[in-house]
Amino acid sequence: MPDTIFDTKALTTGVRPLDTTDWEYYSTPSGYKTLVKEILFCNSSSGDMNANLYFVPSGEVVSEQVKYFSEFPVQENTTNIASLNTVMEAGDSIHASIEVEPSGGYVNMKISGIEIG
Predict the structure, then answer these.
(1) What is the pLDDT of residues 59-115, one digit of tens each?
(2) What pLDDT is attached to residue 7?
(3) pLDDT higher than threshold 70 for residue 5
(4) Count of beta carbons in the 10 Å neighbourhood of residue 19
(5) Where are the domains of the chain?
(6) Predicted confidence (pLDDT) at residue 1 exceeds the cutoff of 60
(7) Are residues 7 and 75 in contact, defined by beta-carbon separation less than 8 angstroms?
């Protein structure tokens, strides 16, 4: 029986700025499951922003049916933390976007969790 590997890590490299396109920010590697623990949203702009977050099962596409957060509020110059315990299967992915482009700043996202293989 193979050893089970638990790798607690940042699931995104660095801090990733969001824009109005639903980009893929993380995908569970083949042979692994992922336990998503926390997602940080930091808004350094001078206006309130809303983030959309999608957990997309392997083989599916971004749609309203896989939306996890709709218009998650991130007030200007603040950081909001979404505490989760969401399990993802191999090939599942996380996509995110914001409603409008920020003026004079960014909305960044960082995903933390555990890969189990």
Answers:
(1) 999 999 999 989 889 999 999 999 999 999 999 999 999 988 777 788 999 999 999
(2) 60
(3) no
(4) 14
(5) 6-116
(6) no
(7) no
The one-character DSSP state at 29 is P
Q: Look up residue 8 and give its two tokens.
A: 């607690």
CATH architecture of 6-116: Sandwich (2.60)
Residue 74 structure tokens: 């991130």
Q: What is the pTM of this model?
A: 0.88
C-alpha neighbours within 13 Å on the C-beta side of residue 49: 32
* Cβ-based neighbours of 52, under 8 Å, separated by 6 or more: 22, 67, 69, 70, 71, 72, 96, 97, 98, 99
Identify the residue whose tokens are 């995908």.
Answer: 27
